[in-house]
């Protein structure tokens, strides 16, 4: 069984910048992050859901 690794600190940091320092947000950097990291995160979340459904 593989280990699920969520980058919670990085997710939280990005959220904090977007919510509290939105003037410094570069849309192209947010979009790049979404394209690069979201597919892997979604895959991990789907694995977690599958595991929870088996419990």
Keywords:
single chain; mainly alpha; 2 helices; 55 residues
Describe what this molecule looks like in 3D:
The protein is mainly α and 55 residues long. It has a domain of 30 residues. The chain has two helices and no strands. The protein is elongated.
Mind sketching the topology for me?
Elements lengths: L7 H13 L6 H28 L1
> What is the N-to-C order of secondary-structure elements (H for helix, E for strand)?
HH
Topology, number of strands: 0
The helix-and-strand class reads: mainly alpha
Strand residue percentage: under 5%
Rg: 14 Å
Helix content: over 70%
Give the overall form. elongated
A few lines on this structure:
The protein has 2 helices and no strands. It is mostly helical and 55 residues long.
């Amino acid at each position: 069984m593989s280990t699920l690794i969520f980058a919670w600190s990085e997710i939280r940091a990005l959220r904090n910048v977007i919510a509290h320092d939105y003037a410094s947000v570069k849309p192209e950097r947010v979009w790049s992050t979404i394209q690069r990291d979201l597919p892997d995160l979604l895959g991990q979340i789907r694995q977690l859901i599958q595991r929870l459904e088996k419990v």
